[in-house]
Amino acid sequence: MLVVDDEPAITVALAKKLRREGYECTTASSGEEALRRLATDELDLVVTDVRMPGMSGIELLQEIKRRDSEIQVIMMTAYTDVGFAVEALRHGADDYLLKPFNLAELSHSVARALEHQRLLRENRAFHEAMGDDREGGVSALERYCRQGIAALAAALESRQGSGSGHLNLVARAAVGTGARLGLSGEGLKRLWLAAVLRDVGMLAVPESTVNKPGPLDLEEWQLIRKHPQVGARLVEAVPYLEPARPGVLQHHERWDGSGYPKGLAGGEISLEGCIVGLADAYAAMLSDRPHRPAKSVTEAVAEIDRCAGSLFDRRVVQAFHQARESDFESEAFDLEVPGPDT
User: pTM above 0.85?
Assistant: First the structure.
């Protein structure tokens, strides 16, 4: 494996740790040097920094995956660079570590990545043995899965009268908030999935009800209130999407127990449910709706503060403010969710 960072102290420390655990490990001080190593060495895994002079870690990631999608890539980034980490996930990064991290986290991440690679290779061998000549096999499917999910979710948003901008805001707000609460790697992947798929259950609601200009009658309202449960059943049927289930099911639950579908309160609500619920409410307040005009950002933020401790977990509100001020409003955090026609 290869460790890439422009700070020699970091590459030396990480390589030493990995060698002690029995891995063959070399180092590189730049993306350009890493690509030269890639051309001559057989590599299973690359651990690389995001911010480096010359070729960035994101550019290195893209080139590695272009050459061999089965090489595992773990990204390292500073806590304030979480937007770059999300971009890395979109480009196929297999995991990432937020600096500063302890060496035990590195060990766990490397072990997970190599196990994932083993499964990918076994799947590829199976398809080859069965005469499956599709280019890339399972790895190609995995590489594009997240983009397909985002496109589907954006189409659903359009059906509901909003679009990719609304979806993008919910996803960015949720992931930024989650990062401030200490989520990383698989935790942020779960959160992103839950954010973009939160309303997939609305597929079971007639469009005439979804976009009804006037007040909903009791039957229509009851139908709307079922969409989290419908969505949870849909995602749990797909292994890749199943981790999104808590956030999809609980994003309309409220801290004081006044939400739906089950009226959960306080700690009964998953962290994903709390975060996606707040992000969804924030984006909704900034959107025009048939029954009310959009609020300004100032008004929406004030409403969230007013509801902290009643509708929303105070910890999540505090993390949301931290993320809004420094992360998810920035261009670097843009998830570039595709529109319904892409």
Answer: no
